[in-house]
Predict the 3D structure of the following.
Amino acid sequence: MAGKLLTAGKSLGPIRRAFAPWNDPAAKPFIQFQNVTKTFGDFTAVDDLSLNIYEREFFALLGPSGCGKTTLMRMIAGFEEPTSGHVMLDGQDLVGVPPYRRPTNMMFQSYALFPHMNVWDNIAFGLKQDGMPKPDIATRVDEMLALVKLEKFAKRKPHQLSGGQKQRVALARSLAKKPKVLLLDEPLGALDKKLREETQFELIDLQVKLGMTFVIVTHDQEEAMTVADRIAVMDQGKIVQIATPAEIYEQPNSRYVADFIGDINLLEGHISSTEGGVTTLDCDGTGAKVQVSQDGGAKLGDHAWFAVRPEKVAISLSPPADPSVNAVTGEVWDIAYLGDVSIYHVRLATGATVKATITNTTRLVERPITWDDKVWLTWSRDGGVVLTR
Amino acid sequence: MRRGASWFNVTSITLGFAFLYLPIVLLVVYSFNASKLVTVWGGFSTKWYVSLLSNQGLLDAAWVTIRVALLSATLATVLGTLAAIALVRFGRFPGGTLFSGMVYAPLVMPEVITGLAMLLLFVAIGFARGFWTLTLAHITFSMCFVAVVVQSRLITFDRSLEEAALDLGCPPFRTFFTITLPLILPAVVAGWMLAFTLSLDDLVISSFTTGPGATTLPMKIYSQVRLGVTPEINAICSILIAIVATGVIIASAVTKRREVDRQRAERLAIQGV
Amino acid sequence: MALTDRSSRHSRLRWLVVAIPYLWLIVLFLAPFLIVVKISLSTTAIAMPPYTPALDLTAGIGALWEQIKEFSFDNYVFLTEDALYWESYLSSVKIAAISTFLILLIGYPIAYGMARAKKEWRTTLLMLVILPFWTSFLIRVYAWIGILKPEGLLNQLLLSLGVISEPLNILPSTLAVYIGIVYSYLPFMILPLYATLEKLDETLLEAAADLGCPPIQAFWKITFPLSLPGVVAGCFLVFIPAVGEFVIPDLLGGSDTLMIGKTLWAEFFSNRDWPVSSAVAVVLLAILVVPIMLFQNAQKKASE
């Protein structure tokens, strides 16, 4: 049932790789939040937030529930008005413009398909509001039905559709009016994992093909990483970091981001040197030294954390050549076997646990390292980052 | 835990429904009694129904009752629906507590108080009592029942449907008529039916607020009941019961049918047909 | 909070949605009560309307004050002096309270049985409870006259079975009033009870059983406490209107069955004493104001 939305014949990779208007000082932002604050009674949902989103960008708002990401999106759609600040779209101030006059469309988490209308009428609904001539509506609706491969289902009511089909009707309905911005509120949350992954790629293809600006709200970091050009990680009404998925993952700017996206090991300590583009961190307790080829904001003497992803940690029974730098030792405390990979939980002398992910290239029976083994964990200079907050 | 028939549940339901229905069944059965003595069975006959047709006073009362019921139910449905929207959608507004108080109070207010109070209002403003005062009174108490019925539907209404309509360019007023109203229509219809039967059945408030020339059927029945039980009253009561029963049975059959259809469609959709 | 729209035409429309029913209820529900209070402070007169002062608002503030000075509490004093009134109040409250308890006792097993019935049966059972609920009160009370009267069906049955040798004098009597109230108000109790019992999560009972709680105890420790909102709603829906009931005591009760609804009706229609009947209504309202407020709170909580 869940066929590809598009025939992904040509590679879209090069187009996406070249696309980075946020690095171009001359590029004009398409959606702008300027010092936007939104309060509900005593609760501050969005706190003095500024943000630029560029045309044709696939932008993800990522964060736990209650972080303000949905409120931010609803301010673009017009369902909430900022308490203070401005929301601009294509140079026009959106504040005070009701939702039904905004050139944006939204795909709702619940899909919000009108239960008393069939698929065709649902998709035609927005077009009818614009007073489009009937033949044009018919053409457009058929086009959209073809796009989401639901031509045979035009006369069905929403309750006669499966979850995946409903999702595609909702998508077709929100795209029918060719909005300047498509807003996607947790669009794939109701689908099962397999269908969700397929649909993520369909969304990317669709976005590139239509050349539209997509803004997606999600709490699923994998989803955000898969679909988005850039991700804004939010916490308590503020944006913690905006960057590409790779930057967010490889160079998180804080423990919050590092922890929210994927798995992370944190070693606490103090900056003992920042010379020659190499930052050195003395770990508390173990006395281990960490050297990172990064000259971020860390200053001599700062309290800081070394953050390294488990898959960037190597595990070995024998000590490395230089055990004083970028290496710690401990005992294997636990092993989680996940099929493709195993995660080793290694307990250090300080009591802290460091995780290392090892790809299972050999069969389980041949596993050389096992419980209670004394092991060495090592990583490269580029393997992790030093964080000061 | 244990769904279905346990002896206790079956007994309590059986006895309960016997208690609820036996008096009504007996009343209907005896309306077909040939004997004038209501409690002695003298053979099957429909003569009391026939004699109703020549009872001009009763027919006039029935006509007044139906007119009042149709008019008051319709207006009460409009007002009650507005009140329900105000209660559910407007959150807190100045005087909101007073408003919700005025909506819920008539549900339990003893009818003698409501009736007396309305009569005194009509006297105080010098409004001639009759058909119109009757209708106004009926609208007022039945709109509150409509409000409660519609309110319970609006509470479970998925707001994102309205937001989707707004998002697709449909202004709020039109959204109400194209999205909200069609979806809450079953509750609005149920509210109308409730208002209609409340108006049809009311005796106490009607007795207070009516005037010359506007006697309703329950008032007519009441004045005759005080004189004793007659087969003719049994007949008119049976007709009223039949009207209400037909309405309720049709309504619940339609609801059940829609529910079954819906479940079947959902099953098919899940199977991917 | 959602759908903020700053266009004024739209916000005017929004306000009409509140204003129309609000004004309607103020004029036709609240104002009449104020008039009742006012008339209860007037004195009887042989005129139309049969009370003074008539409170003529067109006469100006000064004249209004003169009229207000004429207000008296004589009617309330009168209520305390005549045993008929306070005995009516007491007996009404007593009859309503006992009836409410009986209805709860009878209604709970029925509602419980309905909620535990197979799913395909439940809609039908619910409809069967709603049907008498929608049938005229008057007709249902009338049906009992044919059953309970001395030569009625009950006596005929009992006589022919030889259980009794003389007809029972159930009608008219206070016992008949109890039967009438229980019968008429039973659906008001069953419906809210069923609504809460039907929503009860059955896994709670399974969890209780799993933790070693036998079914009877599980009922008292799990089911009953969770059905309390329904019990409360049902009791209010029965008790409050039953206190002011008129039709049932009038048709089924004897001359010794005192109920305040009947007294008020007689005061108004037979004695044509509007100020005293207004005072009776005000005191009745004062008795019921606490239960009514509690009921409204319960309703509001349930709808939030």
